[in-house]
């Protein structure tokens, strides 16, 4: 889907007229009309405003992709962030378990070994999840 088609779809999804969108990005209604009819292309600062307003990356806004693909990519990026956060907590949790082993056994060496094992297991599990 071209930029002009995407812009039209995104604008209509928000329930905006060309004039309302034009006011938001500080251009004329005719400019928006030209963008949607592929007669002109917005300047970079206007593209940035559009991408922020429609909550879409510049890459997804400009490149020929379907909006459904863009929505799927946005959903995937959220799950990737959640996975990374889970991995971080897994690594920290492994470290804490290792330190706890050292404190329970009252042995500095066991604590150090346990902490490193906890960290190592966290990284190993993180690597396994990526495969």
UniProtKB/TrEMBL annotation:
Single GO MF descriptor: DNA binding
Keyword annotations: DNA-binding, Membrane, Transmembrane, Transmembrane helix
Residue ranges of domain HTH cro/C1-type in the record: 7-61
Region (Disordered): 66-85
UniProt xrefs under CDD domains: HTH_XRE
InterPro entries per the UniProt record, alphabetical: Cro/C1-type_HTH (IPR001387), Lambda_DNA-bd_dom_sf (IPR010982)
Annotated transmembrane regions: 110-128
UniProt biased composition (Basic and acidic residues): 66-79
Coiled-coil positions: none
Family matches, as PROSITE patterns: HTH_CROC1 (PS50943)
Stored PANTHER family: HTH-TYPE TRANSCRIPTIONAL REGULATOR IMMR (PTHR46558:SF13), TRACRIPTIONAL REGULATORY PROTEIN-RELATED-RELATED (PTHR46558)
The protein's name in its UniProt record: Transcriptional regulator
